[in-house]
Amino acid sequence: MPNLKTIDAIRAFSRFYTARLGVVGQTYLGTEYSLSDARVIFELDARQTTRATDLVHDLGIDPSYLSRIIARFAKQGLLKATPDPEDGRSRVLSLTARGLEEAARLRALSRGEIGAMIERLSEPEAEALEQALKIAERHLSPGSTTPPAFTLRQHRAGDMGWIVESQAAFYAREYGWNDKFEALLADVVGSFLKHFNPQRERVWIAERDGTRVGSIILADGGDDVGKLRLLYVDQAARGLGLGSRLVEECIAFATTAGYRKISLWTNDILATARALYARNGFIVTNREKHSMFGPAMMGETWELKLSENKDLPS
Amino acid sequence: MPNLKTIDAIRAFSRFYTARLGVVGQTYLGTEYSLSDARVIFELDARQTTRATDLVHDLGIDPSYLSRIIARFAKQGLLKATPDPEDGRSRVLSLTARGLEEAARLRALSRGEIGAMIERLSEPEAEALEQALKIAERHLSPGSTTPPAFTLRQHRAGDMGWIVESQAAFYAREYGWNDKFEALLADVVGSFLKHFNPQRERVWIAERDGTRVGSIILADGGDDVGKLRLLYVDQAARGLGLGSRLVEECIAFATTAGYRKISLWTNDILATARALYARNGFIVTNREKHSMFGPAMMGETWELKLSENKDLPS
DNA sequence: ACCAATTACTTGACTCAGTCCACTAAATGC
DNA sequence: GCATTTAGTGGACTGAGTCAAGTAATTGGT
Fold first, then answer.
1. Residues B41-50 pLDDT 10s
2. How far is the CA of A86 from the C1' of D3 (A)?
3. Nearest-CA distance from A135 to chain B in Å?
């Protein structure tokens, strides 16, 4: 879904970036090398040893042009080409000692150039910049449509706040819920933390690439009843089976912790969540209309008996 | 403080980006224009009217080269140059109808190219990408060391969660406070939202570039006492006077709302905040040791009488 | 008011980065 | 074993970009 706003944001950035980095022009940072020369040198330096075809593919450079560049570098003693044992047509390229020196020189130059560009950045700013570039690169990369998956961990400082933030924002945007919902979230989270008992309670935070994308909580409801709460899967992580995974983890933990049953409260309009609970054996035990969060809806209590359910396949 | 890690992150990104965008090569996206041609056209399109020197500066292009490009475009009917009334040496350039058409054509091409690149991104991913590019651009920009400043607004859904998150994470990292602090934050936020009275209570959220960087809350403490709470300034926004501004806003609001005094609770180790309160006329009325959040510290209650303070310069 | 220095832009002349095409030689496929 | 593909090379060209030297208008100092 390529929306125009994003596209133009990228185009604006490109204009800025090309101008800023002096990509235009025929020589690389005022050295005796062209931009293509420099790219070849850097590439050879990064991967010790390559064949010309690989460079052609990765750098998108013309084969004949590359051939000439290589010949020139070989003549200058920057690289040497040895026959490829696996393919008689091609040769294996690697930088010589002098070539490595040149690579180092160019790198230093480029680093200096960039260093000058960012010297006034504070530590957290530099951090933010790195993070931003990493995100940009990942999203603009052709392969790796989406990095494999999520990881689960227990909560750390700030996680509970994130739970409140993300859910409040999401339900306000999607369903028009008001700030009483955020109040409820904060209350739930606050009292959970206040009485947190690691033996019988747990928070799972799902992360992808260092960003939080989902959560679930099991709280002790007393009387051997576990309360499943605050299930959330970010839009960016839909369709990965994260919701199922969170619910399963929660059930498994509740089972080993010795709870009799798990109960949860949700609302009828949250279809995906309801389906998920149903799939995992939960059944509705109570329904009642309310409009605590603005719009009228039907609140539902779901329960799962653990003793009978223990050996069902999930 | 240009650290090597950041520099190399940028270099890696540049390698990636130049390769990905086909910046190398002499023609722009296979059109009959060179990259420089295209940049000139886009620039002219963006700012309706310019002089050649401006282009030379902004695009970093050689004057003689630009002169020829302009002459060629003029001959092709893409742009027209009228004498500059303010400077007889220079002429004002603007695209003709045909030039605008060409600009549109090139833009469509470039958009298509980029659209193809990001078509598999989901909405939130696209959002994240835009945000990342904006951050990158801001940090890499030469001028505007730091964009003018922050903006203040009242709270929206998710903001209170963000307050909990950012403060919990910050105080855990910097002072080793435990999750009981996050619990307190959540409680404060939860009950504030539950009883929120817009007439006599307010939240200020500071944003910079669409990112939240600070907060403060004035809550009704009953008995005509306003409670100042949850003052926070993100590390990325230190030194902008944001803290002062938030406190001033808060005092001003409390004054017009008719509070008798403002009271707040903080801890002795938070030196910058204490200094800020002192500077605004607050005085300590109570101190007591506690270790609610792990480390032992001295909790302090500060108060500001409003009736006497009203006409002081801030 | 005037002259030197600067600025906006142009022109001539050149070079070499990058492209296109046709080719050889080895490898792969049926 | 023959057709096709792949790796790399060389010839020939073009035009993007550079450098130096100019002209005309403007600015600045005295």
1. 999 998 888 9
2. 23
3. 6
